[in-house]
Amino acid sequence: MRHGKTINHLGRTASHRNAMLSNMASSLILHKRISTTVAKAKALRKFVEPLLTKSKNDTTHSRRLVFAELGNKEALKELFGTVSSKVANRPGGYTRIIKLSDVRLGDNAEMCIIELVDFNETLLEAKNAGEAKAAAPATRRSRSKKKADAPAGEAVAPAAVVETAAPADTATTTVQEGETRDEAKADEEAAS
Known about the structure:
With 192 residues, this protein is mostly helical.
């Protein structure tokens, strides 16, 4: 039975796994988004989120703790510089895993993208637009009274008429089997 065994060993020894997660975390911090397998992304999330929480408190002690895990000075500067300022007001959940539809060719492994949530500009813009739309005053009353109360002096445009049938002057061509559309059009023009 596997009760209480929560660590995914990823088919590696402990030293190999720690080195791999450290390198992946450095790449994630530097590039803000990396592509990997779903299993590695879930293991990376458990590894990197405590480091992001420690980066909120910029002290020598927290820098040393994070450097002991990462071992990369450039990633440490980036983490305590730009990343910590963006995640400062977020209470956890700093990463997002987006599963991709394709799989890896060699072993059919499920692929995904893991990214830092606060650095995806398109989703942030969509969220801000949704908040602005929701900020419009909502009313429980129907808005049909405004149309009925329109002054009599204003002219109201008639409703648009929509045709459901094709126009009569549309030419149609019948294409025989093994014949291209251009050949069929040339045959019909020759016949008429």
